[in-house]
Amino acid sequence: MSADWLAGIRFSGFSIIMMGVLVLAVVVLAPSIAAYAEQRQQIAELKADVALQEAEVARLTEQRERWNDETYIVTQARERLYYVLPGEVSYLVIDDRSPETLANADRAVSREVTEQRGDWMQTMLRSVMTAGLAPAPSDAPAGTEPVEPAPAGTDQPDDEGTR
After folding, report:
1. CA 75 to CA 82: how far, in whole Å?
2. Share in percent of the chain as helix, strand, coil (round to 5)
3. HSE on the CB side for 57, CA within 13 Å?
4. What's the pLDDT score for residue 145?
5. Which letter, b or e, does each residue of 52-74 get, where b requires 16 or more Cβ atoms within 10 Å of its Cβ?
6. Does residue 82 contact residue 92 with C-beta atoms inside 8 Å?
7. What's the CA gap between 54 and 48, in Å, rounded?
8. Backbone dihedral region for residue 9 (phi beyond 0: left; psi -120 to 50: alpha; all else: beta)
9. What is the pLDDT of residue 136?
10. Between 20 and 30 A from 66 (CA), which of 27, 29, 38, 92?
11. Would you state the pLDDT for residue 163?
12. Is the separation of the CB atoms in 84 and 90 below 8 Å?
């Protein structure tokens, strides 16, 4: 049955020439199309590189502008070189913790602790109310005996600790 179908196909001279031209066009144009696609890919990569370089140039230009500001220069001299102005006193804190303590200090803090947000207004109100309702210094808490001042002329140490 398939042989009958194949035997029914007739090719004219024109259709054979057109198929030949089509095959020739594919053979001739395929390398050009591949080269075109490759060049488009290279152009896209080069555009990405240019965008990165422009961003770097913008960052460096901004940094150069910062160095034109006298306040920025003074800040950098203080932070990086530990410079101080005349009359100022500089303190350098050296981390004297043990290596084990430093290793524990570098651990990341949990997200729950760092992202919790409190209502500062309620916290402030609670602090004011606690301070306002605290007993006065003369009101001694229950269970404690008040301290009486020593009579004059007794041997009590003064502020400098001498007798």
Report:
1. 10
2. 60, 0, 40
3. 6
4. 60
5. eeeeeeeeeeeeeeeeeeeeeee
6. yes
7. 10
8. beta
9. 78
10. 92
11. 44
12. yes
CB distance 83 to 76 below 8 Å: no
H/E stretch holding 23? helix 13-67
Q: Which of 130, 148, 151 is nearest to 140 (CA)?
A: 148
Q: For residues 22 and 14, give the distance between their C-alpha atoms in angstroms, rounded to a whole number.
A: 12
Residue with tokens 């913008």: 58
CA–CA gap between residue 163 and residue 158 (Å, rounded): 7
Task: Give the mean pLDDT per block of 10 residues along the chain (163 residues).
Answer: 69 87 90 92 97 97 94 91 89 80 69 67 90 76 57 53 47
Instruction: Give the tokens for residue 18.
Output: 């057109």
